[in-house]
Write a structure and sequence with these properties.
Number of domains: 3
Radius of gyration: 42 Å
Signal peptide: 1-22
Keywords: Signal
Low-confidence stretches: 1-32
Largest sheet: 4 strands, antiparallel
Oligomer: single chain
Number of strands: 8
Order of helices and strands: HEEEEHHHHEEEE
């Protein structure tokens, strides 16, 4: 009886397994929601094409036009799954006379599984639209044209950062972090960054170079600084796009009190004070 039950169970199992595999190998017409999958090729191949997927009318991937557009598609020619030696055994042991004793055991095994994927190809289209970047750069150049002072803010900001760091090095951080044990660590950290010592308050580029006003034309690559020299001469400095002077011209002079000339000298002691 046990042998007949075992044979019947094995036969049913072997009949069910091929049916299960055949059902799972069916290819549906539609996959993920929103995609139309067109299947073509041999019946045993799995080829999907989503190029003709309809786009909803209320959703557009190109309005407004993106700065970076990416379109990628992948093609897989063959996906093969091989399963060897599927074995299932059922062991039964029944005893009825002494009350009831029933033992059952199932032993299932798979010898080898092989997965093969062939003919994989991918197409990627990456398009960068730099129209907005060109507009931003153009706006920056126009701002510099109208406000030349913006070009010198970076230099002043560097002096402000260095002076602030020097002030912290002098004692502010030591008072916050603790006594001498932290003091050495703070000084070492600031020395590592090679910060400059505290100096005089920063001056604007125009004031430091006696520039009265500037005319900048980046489209024509011509820039002019009107400068008041120390001797009272008013001079025009012609500059290139990098700030290098290639021509100077005296266009006038400045005398606040006609007929009066003052010559002065400033002397500094060893400590740098007047």
């Amino acid at each position: 009886m046990i042998r007949s039950v075992l044979c019947s169970f094995t036969a049913v199992l072997l009949l069910i397994l091929p049916f299960t595999f055949s059902q799972s190998s069916g290819v549906p017409d539609y996959g993920y929601e929103g995609y139309k999958l067109d299947v073509h090729g041999q019946p045993e191949d799995v080829l999907y094409a989503t190029a003709d997927t309809p786009v909803p009318v209320n959703i557009s991937a190109l309005e407004p036009e993106p700065d970076v557009y990416l379109n990628a598609s992948v093609h897989v020619g063959i996906i093969e799954l091989t399963v060897d030696n599927i074995t299932a055994k059922v062991n039964l042991d029944a005893q009825v006379l002494q009350l009831l004793k029933f033992n059952a055991g199932v032993d299932a095994s798979i010898d080898r599984v092989r997965l093969t994927i062939l003919n994989v190809s991918a197409e990627v289209l990456l398009e960068a639209r730099l129209g907005n970047i060109v507009l931003m750069v153009n706006d920056v150049l126009k701002s510099l044209d109208l406000n030349p002072i913006l070009a010198t803010l970076g230099k002043d900001l560097k002096h402000i950062v260095n002076n602030t760091a020097s002030t912290l090095k002098g004692g502010s951080l030591n008072g916050v972090l603790g006594p001498k044990s932290n003091s050495g660590r703070v000084n070492a950290m600031l020395e590592e960054n090679s910060l400059q010592k505290r100096g005089p308050p920063p001056q604007s580029y125009q004031l430091a170079n006696n520039i009265l006003y500037s005319i900048n034309d980046y489209s024509g690559h011509t820039h002019t600084n009107r400068v008041l020299a120390q001797n009272g001469s008013i001079m025009d400095y012609s500059l290139d796009d990098y700030g290098h002077t290639y021509h100077t011209q005296v266009v006038g002079d400045y005398h606040p009190f006609p007929g009066v000339t003052c010559i002065s000298a400033i002397y500094l002691n060893d400590r740098g004070t007047v």
